[in-house]
Design goal:
60% of the residues lie in helices and 6% in strands. The protein has 2 domains: 38 residues; 287 residues, no CATH class. The chain has 392 residues and is mostly helical. The chain has a 3-stranded antiparallel sheet with strand order 1-3-2, with no helix packed on it. A two-stranded antiparallel sheet has the order 4-5.
């Protein structure tokens, strides 16, 4: 018992000494600056004081923006009412039964299943995928500040990249994860979904949106490579929002194309599955080789990037289910599709306060990277299964 008591006393003494050293390391720059400041005249003190006030204000704003997540809601997809949509994107909308006065402005034509429907002239179903992509980007850059291009985020913590610290980088990683889903979606909209392959050209609005969404995520008003003034990242993403909504407006007026063929859906699911597979590989590599528990400073940004990706793809997949409604019905895929969406929802329930990257068989520190990686692979497996059914 005496040996145990001595051990714990030694441990307590070591902890106290460590805390004293840490406190001294944190405080001495401020003490040195205070000594230097007190010996200067007023002409030097005033500019220095103004600079200090400016830094405090900037850091206060920066910390506030990184900690307040506006518009974040894993259940936000429910607001779109995708389950009530019965027409694929781009299909003519049926005329309201209670509006006989519109008879001069309607036409009859066969639907996708061969039935004759009466439709309102020049009114078509908009794309849920495009709507969701625009709204996700709007949440990133209009409802919230885009953290990755903020000046203090670029400067880091005393020159150390914020992603390599356990502080103030979770929201930035989450935003980049969401943005990754929108970027991938924009590419598929341009190449396959927003055109009839072989018979129509690339839609200009979707092309503009894709180009703007591919812009560097870390650009501020000024940069060194290349040297000079720049347009910041959020400006490009806001332009992409306008282009996406312009496309949906044209689609609503039957002036654009949205090709809801089964093979297009197959290719879209392929791209999403590959994207999730790449993320799961990053999570596995970090989980296996850097399992430092609560002390792995890169675990949090890895986790929140994957979470943002699942958050974005949950919304995109929900919208795709509405846009390709008739394809899913024809292939009897509605149940499997809903099960896939449920897998996404289950993953989004994992929101630990502190991210831990412990050993997978550890007792004390959990392995949150392994957990989110497991759900990432589950959703990917469901996507592959849907793809195989469509490809038969």
């Amino acid at each position: 018992m005496d040996a145990i008591a001595v051990f714990f006393r030694s441990l307590g003494t070591a902890l106290k000494q460590g805390l004293r050293l840490l406190t001294a390391w944190l405080v001495w720059p401020f003490l040195a600056a205070h000594g230097w400041y007190s010996q200067r005249n007023l002409l030097i003190k005033l500019p220095v004081a103004a600079l200090a006030v400016l830094l405090v204000a900037l850091y206060g704003y920066f910390i506030w923006q990184t900690q307040v997540w506006r518009g974040f809601d894993p259940n936000f997809v429910d607001r779109y009412g995708f389950a009530e949509r019965k027409l694929a994107a781009g299909q003519p909308l049926p005329a309201p039964e209670s509006s006989p006065a519109l008879s001069d402005n309607t036409s009859t034509q066969p639907s996708a299943n061969g039935q004759i429907v009466t439709s309102v002239a020049n009114r078509c179903q908009t794309s849920g995928i495009v709507e969701v992509a625009a709204d996700l980007t709007d949440t990133n850059v209009n409802q919230n500040a885009w953290i990755s291009s903020m000046l203090l985020y670029r400067l880091g913590l005393f020159g150390l990249d914020w992603d390599r610290t356990p502080f103030l980088d979770n929201k930035a990683a989450f935003q980049r994860g969401v943005n990754q889903t929108v970027r991938r979606t924009a590419v598929e909209l341009v190449d396959t979904l927003g055109r009839v392959r072989g018979t129509s050209g690339i839609n200009g609005d979707l092309q503009d949106a894709r180009g703007n969404l591919q812009f560097d995520e870390f650009s501020w008003y000024f940069g060194l490579q290349p040297f000079g003034f720049k347009t910041p990242t959020p400006s490009y993403y806001r332009a992409a929002i306008g282009s996406l909504r312009k496309f949906n407006l044209d689609l609503a007026n039957c002036q654009a194309v949205f090709d809801t063929r089964a093979d297009n859906l197959v290719q879209f699911l392929d791209r999403i599955a590959n994207d999730l597979g790449s993320t799961s590989a990053i999570l596995r590599e970090r989980s296996e080789n850097y399992n430092g528990g609560w002390f792995d400073t890169r675990a949090d940004d890895r986790f929140w990037f994957a979470y943002g990706q699942l958050y974005g793809y949950y919304a995109i997949m929900s919208a795709a289910g509405a846009d390709f409604h008739q394809v899913l019905q024809e292939r009897n895929l509605t149940s499997l599709w809903n099960d896939t969406l449920q897998q996404f929802r289950s993953a989004l329930r994992i929101r630990p306060l502190i991210i831990s990257n412990g050993a997978e068989d550890g007792i004390i520190m959990p392995s949150h990277l392994a957990t989110i990686g497991f759900y990432t692979l589950r959703t990917r497996s469901n996507l592959v299964e849907i793809r195989s059914v469509l490809d038969r």
